[in-house]
Task: structure prediction
Amino acid sequence: ATKDEAKKHRYRQKISEYMTRAEDIKKHIEKEKQDGKYHKQIRIEENATGFGYEKLFQEYLTEIVSEVWVEDPYIRHVHQASRCLLYNFLRFCEMLVKGPCKVKTIHLLTSYDEGSGRSQQISGLEEIQQSLRNYGVTLNIEFSSSIHDREIRFNNGWMIKIGRGLDYFKKPQGRFSIGYCDFDLRPCHETTVDVFHTKHTKKM
Result:
């Protein structure tokens, strides 16, 4: 709104400098992505909230994502419903189904539950598998006794490693407490999230 031409010139110059710098940063990040050197780290503090799956993953779920790999040794049944890690995986799948990506295939590599929980784990995963099929998504399930790492990969090159895997949420105070249904409101355990971009996504 200023009529001072000198001020106008300085403002335009500053805006131009900011725009150029923003473009340079964007190019630098893009180059790091292409070189497979991009690395971003997110620290989730003890009892922090606001870290639901959408918050954590949505930035990387672009429209071209059609295939997802999940490696987590603890996608299994725990007797308390609020700690059933199968529900965590189910909620992750729900996020993928909602888009904006067009996921067609999800690959899950996990380990067998121990003892009597194995049959419940298998039936739960099969139920998720059938439900996903109704949305045109194929879930491929594999089991490994030696898996230790936890990572999630998308076929657009993004790879996310979470120290606690998908199980970084604390047990809610009760079945009718805030945060039981909405993971954005659920307090978290302390953990670290590392985000990388690689040219070639490893296949299982």
